[in-house]
Design brief:
Blueprint: H1 2-39, H2 43-65, H3 70-92, H4 94-112
Length: 114
Amino acid sequence: MKKIVVAIILTLTISVGFGQNKAAEKMTIANTKEMVKALSLESDLESKIYDINLEKNTALLANKAKEQSEEEMIINRKGIYKTAQHKFREVLGKDKLKEWNVYKNAQSASKKNK
C-alpha cells in the first residue's frame, strides 16, 4: 500500500513538473518572437533572448506554484523581472532595452484604454 501511495505522489509530481516546463516553453517562444519582431533582432541574439526568457518564465511559474503569501509572491516576481532585465541589458544593450520597455508600456497602455 505504501508503495502505491508513493508511486501516485511521484507520478503527480512529475506530471506537474512537465506541465510547467511545457507552459514555460510556450510562453518563452511567444515572448522571444515578439521581442525579435518588435526590436528587429538578428538571429544570433534570438537564442540568447530565448534562454533568458525561458529562465524567467520557468522561475515565474515556479513562483506561482509555490505556497506563499500574495505579498511574498509579488516580491519574488519583481526580483525575477529585475534579474531578467539585467540580463536583457547585457545582451541587447541599453538602447534596445529602452526601446523594448517603451514598446511594452505602449502595449499595456492600449490594453488599459480598451
